[in-house]
Amino acid sequence: MDGPSYPQCSSKGCRADATWQLLWNNPKLHTPDYRKTWLACEDHRTTLGQFLDVRGFLREVTPFGAASDAPIS
Ligand SMILES: [Zn+2]
Questions:
Q1: Where does the source fall among the domains of life (predicted)?
Q2: Strands 20-24 and 58-63: what pairing?
Q3: Residue 11 C-alpha to ligand 1 middle, in angstroms?
Q4: Which residues contact 40 (CB under 8 A, 6 or more apart)?
Q5: Which helix (H) or strand (E) holds 20?
Q6: pTM reported for the whole predicted model
């Protein structure tokens, strides 16, 4: 089964459009500057973020998909 061609939330079973991306790094597996990316909908930004944060993996959470008309600062 092929994955969807448009970005969806990475939370298991969730098919909502992704609006956030969570950038994370597992120091045991990854070099320090490597970033894994999980996509999250509005509802799962917090739960996925907490999952990563309690493990010390979470590095950054940024808006996803709205970059075209959002100023980059
Ligand atoms: Zn979701």
A1: Bacteria
A2: antiparallel
A3: 5
A4: 9, 10, 11, 18, 19, 20, 21, 22, 48, 49, 64
A5: strand 20-24
A6: 0.79
